[in-house]
Every structure is written in C-alpha cells, then in structure tokens.
Amino acid sequence: MYLLQLSVISHLICDFLLQSKNIVELKYERKVKGYLFHFITLFFSTFILSILGINNFKITFWFSLALSLLHIFIDIIKDIFRAHRPIEDLLVFLLDQLLHLTTIFFLWYYLVHIISIPVSTIPIFSHFNKDIGETLTVIIFYLFVLFAGSILLEKTLKVIDIKVKDRDEISIGKYIGIIERALILTLVVFGEISSIGIIFTAKSLARYKELSEKRFVEYYLLGTLSSLFLALVGGLILRSILNQ
Predict the structure, then answer these.
(1) What is the rounded average pLDDT for all residues in the chain?
(2) Would you list the DSSP string of 21-77?
(3) b/e string for 176-209 if b means 16 or more Cβ within 10 A?
(4) How far is the C-alpha of 235 from the C-alpha of 184, rounded, in Å?
(5) Alpha-carbon distance 64 to 43, whole Å?
(6) Other Cβ atoms closer than 10 A to 222
(7) Residue 194 to residues 145, 183, 231, 243: CA-CA distances in angstroms?
(8) H or E stretch at 204
C-alpha cells in the first residue's frame, strides 16, 4: 500500500501546493509551458516518493513517467472542454480529481497485482511498517481536507454567485479556512469534538459587525458550515481508520 499512498500524496502536493494560479492560467490557455512545468514537478515528486515504495530505480522511473503523462493527458482534455459556468466548473473539478485518483489506483494495481513487481521499502522504514502506513494516511487526509478542500469550497461558493468586493479578503479567508480545517480535523481525530465550538466563537466575534449584513451572513454561514462538514467528515473517517 505504500506505493499507492505515496502516489496519492505526490498528486495532492503537485495539484494543490506546487501548482500556482499562474500555472493554472497557462494550462487554461493551453500553453506548453504550463503543462511542461506541471509535468516536471509531478514526475520528480512521484519519482522521489515512489522510490520509497518500490525501491527499484528502473520500475520507479517508468511508473512515474506513465503516471505523469496520463495526468497531463487528463488535464489537457479537461482544459479543452473548460467549463465556464460555476456548476459545470465544480463538476469538472470533481471528475478531474476522480480520474486522477482512478489512474493512480489502476497503475498501482497493475504493477503490484498483475505483473507482481517486487515491492519493498527502504530498509530504514522496515521496522516501522504500521506506523509509516498510518502516518501516510494522516498526511493524505490533511493534504486533502486543508488544500484540496480550499479549491473545492471556493468552487462550491461560486455556484451560489455571491459577489465579494474585496479580493484580498478572499485570499486571507482561504488561509484562515486552511488553519480552521486543520484545527477541526485534529480535534476530531483526538476525540475533542466539543472544542470545535471555540473556533466558531472566535470567528463570530471577529466578524461581529459584518453579521448584520444579510448577504454576508449567507456567505459566511455557507462557507463556514461547508468547511466544518469537510473537516468533520475527514476527521471521523481518519479517526476510524487509525482506530482499526
């Protein structure tokens, strides 16, 4: 499972941490530079992480190359049929991520279960098999809930077409949301769900004056509750996995 987990981590890092808005725009414009940069970061990230799960240079190289090429192919198809309406953009985003994760799974399954490559871990990990597997699972959940969650919530909020005047405020709110979900996810994993109320009390106090505006309240509640739902579900699933 290490190879599968490490490949998913590489995907999340490259799609949501290393891919800047500038790169996304270059890809939307179907510029080779955008796809090339994304391919390079994905290939090297996948290779560096996958070598820990395969421990074979040649197989890791071809696995990383195949995964990166398929990833870019899916991105090109997505950008050719770029959605302009918010609801379509959200659905395309979800389908895009589903295809990427499905590709990772089937490539992993082909290597491990069809051609049965000798998968092993670097010796330093051999004494921590269970701990390393749990750690990788935790990393996946945090990357998804914190960073992929930001994009998911942003696209979801666009569907309701709420106009926000201050774009800088949106950027700041994005980082606040990441910290918020990190806190909620951590509290849920450690079984301190009742402490989540402190987070919302602090947010409400900070936004007290703006809560008198109906439009803002709608945006605030939808964004906050969506963020809570994502972090809460992610935390409950992660806690269930770790307690098995």
Answers:
(1) 82
(2) HHHHHHHHTT-HHHHHHHHHHHHHHHHHHHHHHH--HHHHHHHHHHHHHHHHHHHHH
(3) ebbebbeebbebbbeeeeeebeebeeeeeeeeee
(4) 8
(5) 6
(6) 16
(7) 20, 12, 14, 20
(8) helix 196-206
Contact 159, 165 (CB under 8 A): no
Q: What is the pLDDT of residues 61-107, one digit of tens each?
A: 999 999 999 999 999 998 888 777 888 888 999 999 999 999 999 99
Q: How many CB atoms lie within 10 A of CB 62?
A: 11
163 near 199, Cβ under 8 Å?
A: no
- The token pair at 231 is 């972090």
User: Residue 114 corresponds to which tokens in the numbers above?
Assistant: 């069809």
Which pLDDT score, from 0 to 100, does residue 229 have?
87
60 touches 54 (CB < 8 A):
yes
CA nearest to 158, candidates 223, 243, 217, 103: 223
Q: What single-letter amino acid sits at 177? A: G
Measured distance CA(42)–CA(19) in Å, rounded: 10
Nearest to 235 by CA among 177, 172, 178, 192: 192
